[in-house]
Design brief:
Blueprint: H1 2-23, H2 32-41, E1 46-47, E2 53-54, E3 60-64, E4 77-81, E5 93-96, E6 101-104, E7 106-107, E8 113-114, H3 123-126, E9 191-195, E10 201-206, E11 214-217, E12 222-228, E13 233-238, E14 243-248, E15 253-259, E16 264-269, E17 275-280, E18 285-290, E19 295-301, E20 306-311, E21 317-322, E22 327-332, E23 339-344, E24 348-354, E25 357-362, E26 367-372, E27 377-383, E28 388-394, E29 397-402, E30 406-411, E31 416-422, E32 429-434, E33 440-445, E34 450-455, E35 460-466, E36 473-477
Length: 482
């Protein structure tokens, strides 16, 4: 009789998992009532796009989707293990009034990460299913009688390549000079992500150091790196690869690959940083990534092959250059995706779109050109220093970086232009990076192992920092990675 009972129970589990797999296995967004409870009881908890819950102290919970959810749930905790614990006390097992559950990741006596013994887990939880696109912590061991909860979910082992991106080793500095220094207050507690022209790694450099702390190892030379979601994740594209890697900074794992079918080459974010627009050099399309779910939301077919993509500050228009013809196009983001030709130009290093005007940097003409998209022609030209390479819109002014180490400011109110800064050193200045919440820009130099910390309001270089690596691209994290 006991044997038959277990056969019936196993049959029920198979049926439940089948139904859950075919209906809701990929619904990884946690229910709103769960989110509300987490915000109330664990305000510092964060929920990853695949449903995994983590806390600043390293605690991790795996969500379990119910096979038979109860109606009208309030998000109330009805059962825990150990018993009678509050969610804020971080119990090993949490069961909510909808049959949704959380299982805490713990270590067993052998030091392997797992969940609590299955005898401590209610049967109703065992009939549930883990989100099917969830990346569980590498090396996780699940008890045998809970394997049915896995569905098609793949568990990566400790030696899987899923860990390799955070296992790189930074090259030790050969200099006898001190590696530590005191950064200006605006830069304290931050991290620089630096790529070079000839390496597959991303150098991770604390803002109080001149040498990398460690390195992220990529499949090939990086095309772009982009911190997103309050710097919890880093989007990375590598040369020759058709996918974007999503690196989870907190868990130090490669959380997901978003395959576009073509090699991604450039990325921009919308104003509230909930969407990423990705250009591919070999397809007439711009891809839209939903950063809340880390999934491909849309593929927008366009004219030409996009390069130098930029988005307006009101998120209404994207502008880009066709890399094959030099034609410049605008793309309306109002749902119509009206794609219009604006002008033809060559050797463009940067574009900005404001209302009906496009502002472009011409490296060969050494000037800022203003294009009226209605008449499709140049309405203003501003001479600049040699080789303008980057520009940034701040408070109705365009700050322009020229490769000879000069910063010019172009005022949009009256189209006047002034030279703010001339750096004394010889080199090739490359990029401007804004330090969030400040009047500070970082100025990189691709031919010298150096970057400058520049206050554009005081018009003063606050600090010149020599690094142990050349800087091709630099992104700034507003947190420290240890």
């Amino acid at each position: 009789m006991k044997k038959n009972y277990f056969n019936i129970k196993n049959l029920f589990l198979v049926a439940a998992v089948y139904c859950l797999t075919t209906v809701s296995a990929f619904a990884t967004k946690l229910p709103d009532y769960i989110i509300d409870t987490l915000k109330s009881e664990l305000p510092k908890a964060s929920v990853r796009f695949d449903g995994l819950v983590s806390l600043p102290d390293g605690t991790v919970y795996l969500p379990v989707l119910p096979s038979n959810p109860k109606k009208n749930p309030a998000g109330k905790v009805v059962s825990t293990y150990p018993a009678n614990k509050k969610l804020s006390q971080l119990p090993d097992v949490v069961l909510f009034d909808s049959n949704f559950a959380l299982l805490k990741v713990i270590k067993n006596k052998n030091g392997r990460i797992t969940v609590t013994d299955s005898k401590n887990i209610p049967f109703v939880i065992k009939t549930g299913l883990f989100p099917q696109d969830m990346l569980v912590p590498p090396g996780l061991v699940i008890p045998d009688d809970m394997k049915i909860m896995m569905g098609d979910l793949k568990i990566e082992l400790t030696n899987s390549s899923v860990n390799d991106i955070f296992k790189g080793h930074a090259e030790a500095s050969k200099s006898n000079k001190p590696s530590k220094f005191v950064p200006v207050p605006y830069m304290a507690g931050k991290t620089l992500l630096v790529t070079t022209l000839d390496s597959k790694i991303v150098n991770v450099i604390p803002s109080d150091s001149v040498v990398p702390k460690f390195a992220l190892t990529l499949d090939n030379l990086p095309k772009f790196i982009q911190p997103v979601c309050n710097d919890d994740y880093i989007l990375v594209a590598s040369a020759g690869k058709t996918y974007i890697d999503v690196a989870d900074v907190k868990q130090e794992v490669l959380a997901k690959k978003i395959d576009l079918g073509y090699q991604p080459t450039e990325i921009i974010l919308n104003k509230d940083k909930t969407k990423a627009y990705v250009a591919v050099a070999d397809d007439q399309a711009i891809f839209v990534i939903d950063l809340k779910t880390m999934s491909l939301a849309e593929k927008i077919k366009i004219k030409g092959y996009p390069k130098n993509i930029a988005i307006s500050s009101d998120d209404k228009i994207i502008v880009y250059l066709d890399k094959n013809t030099g034609d410049i196009y605008t793309l309306n983001l109002d749902g119509t995706y009206l794609n219009s030709y604006a002008y033809n130009a060559s050797n463009v290093s940067k574009l900005i779109v404001i209302d009906k005007n496009i502002y472009l940097l011409s490296r060969t003409e050494n000037e800022l050109q203003v294009i009226d998209t209605e008449i499709k022609d140049i309405i203003f030209k501003q001479p600049l220093a040699k080789k303008p390479v980057d520009m940034m819109l701040i408070d109705n002014k365009i700050y322009i970086l020229c490769a000879v180490g000069e910063i010019d400011v172009f005022n949009l109110d009256d189209f006047s232009c002034n030279t703010l800064l001339k750096l004394p050193e010889v080199g090739f200045s490359k990029k401007l990076v804004r330090v969030d919440g400040s009047n500070v820009l970082l100025i990189t130099n691709v031919t010298d192992k150096k970057y400058y910390v520049y206050d554009f309001v005081k018009n003063s270089v606050l600090q010149s920092v020599n690094t142990s690596v050349y800087i091709n691209d630099l992104q700034l994290l507003n947190k420290r990675l240890d």
